Amino acid sequence: TNESKNTKKKKKKNHKIALKATLVGHKDAVWCVAFEPNRNDILATCSSDKTVKIWKRNVVKRDDDDDDVKSSHQTCEFRCVCTLDGVHERTIRSVSWSPCGRYLASASFDATVAIYQRAEDEENEEEDEVKFECVAALEGHENEVKSCAWSPSGSLLATCGRDKSVWIWESAPGNHFECVAVLHGHTQDVKKVKWHETEDVLYSASYDDTVKTWKEDLDGDDWSCSGTTKAHESTVWDLTQEKVKEGGRFATVSDDGWVKIWKAGGAQRTEISGSSSSSGKKDDAAPLECSFRSGHDRPILCVDWLGDANRKNSESGNKKQPATLAAGGGDNSVRVYREKETGVWEEAAAVVNAHEDDVNDIAWFSMASEKEETEQSTNYFASASDDGTVKIWTFCSSNVDE
Description:
single chain; mainly beta; 4-stranded antiparallel sheet
């Protein structure tokens, strides 16, 4: 009987974050990391050094043992293939790719937003060169622009800033952009704009501790706020949405050190705020699913939800991975949180001194070419810091005997 007991050892999940690469090139704080949406081997970063850098993942050619065919193997190392400078006069705070990957927007403290178009050059595609041309400069904000984001349709660009406003720009033929809405409602700096994963519905997070939801009016003439959520007790620095087909839950992070998970409400499941009741009164209770105190002992500055496309074993026969968040903060750490069961989250792994200064942004990405071992699932993310570096990490989950 002892033998039979021993053969049935329980498997326990072992989680680990490991550093794979450090990208050095910026001369000042790095504020944002953005992977090209259709191919995770290209990364854009922006910095207080007034530049945007484009990085490409190294591909190593190697001989296969089976035959004479040379195979390509992608590594975690990235090299800088393009530096976009001379456009902005102050810190560049945010970069965002259009869904097609041809356009890149950059938002700066000089009160402008630049639009770069990628040069269509198939010959250089395999080489180190990736070329961009600045095709538009959007002016209108009174002062620092803090964030920019393209809509899922690719036709709209949202920007926000210190002037407490959110702007929506519509792209027109010939690289023209028209402002279709200037949205007021926040009482303080607007730190971040993010679009719904699948719908042209916009969310803004602010220094006034709230998250607002913005929708186009039914007649299509204007945009208005469809809901406001008092999300935290202090500045809301970032929000992210669960990347599932129908558009999932939301997570917000704050100066107050809490992570909050919100159900998507409303008929289209796009609201993060209480819906109007039949009496016409606003229901103040936002659909908060749960909140948990993070391991960060300083403000949580960034968060990203691991999407199905970035889950290494989503298409294999393995069991689907649980909901997973990566977060970075003012305590220089990166941390990964996992959902044990609905409404119950735990810190799965952490690197306490991941950077030498604040971690400003974090983003998951996939390494589609990697072969996966059955006992282990590996996910990849990048972090950007005030220390001037971008770091590439793996988050591994393996089964170990208890």
